[in-house]
């Protein structure tokens, strides 16, 4: 049985969200954070829009992921040889240089007033969790 869910998509700037303080129970940022021009401001904004006690997570690539781990990750997707080669080059030359390490995330998260933060790592990525 499908549930009816009302969704309101909005385009904006993660560093200057157009939402009221304490608006959300959950904030999720997936595979986009490495592209933000003002990452610390975005984290401070995530803190601002979360309700007290609410959580958020940033899920993204780890800058220190090895090419071996990335190769294994891509090869497991069965995308074919040519697409796999293109994906590996994209990771190596475009995505990894923009990504952050777990320590860099810890430093950025420390600049917001979260009550708790923690980081979980995978072979190619990480989840930076925070609670207001």
Q: Could you describe the 3D structure shown?
A:
The protein has helices spanning 39-49, 67-75, 81-95, 102-109, and strands spanning 24-30, 50-61, 116-121, 125-131. With 132 residues, the protein is of the alpha+beta class. The chain has a single domain, classed as Vaccinia Virus protein VP39 (Rossmann fold). The chain has a 4-stranded mixed beta sheet with strand order 1-2-4-3. It is globular. The chain starts with 23 loop residues before the first strand and ends with a strand. The mean pLDDT is 95.
- How many individual domains? 1
Count up the helices: 4
Gyration radius, to the nearest Å? Answer: 17 Å
**CATH class label:** Alpha Beta
Strand order of the largest sheet: 1-2-4-3
Please identify the structural class as seen in this structure.
alpha+beta
Q: Which percent band covers the strand fraction?
A: 15-25%
Multimeric organization: single chain
Brief rundown of the structure:
With 132 residues, this protein is an alpha+beta fold.
Supply database-style keywords:
132 residues; alpha+beta; Rossmann fold; four-stranded mixed β-sheet; 4 helices
Strand-helix topology:
Layout lengths: L23 E7 L8 H11 E12 L5 H9 L5 H15 L6 H8 L6 E6 L3 E7 L1
Parallel strand pairs: 1-2
Antiparallel strand pairs: 2-4, 3-4
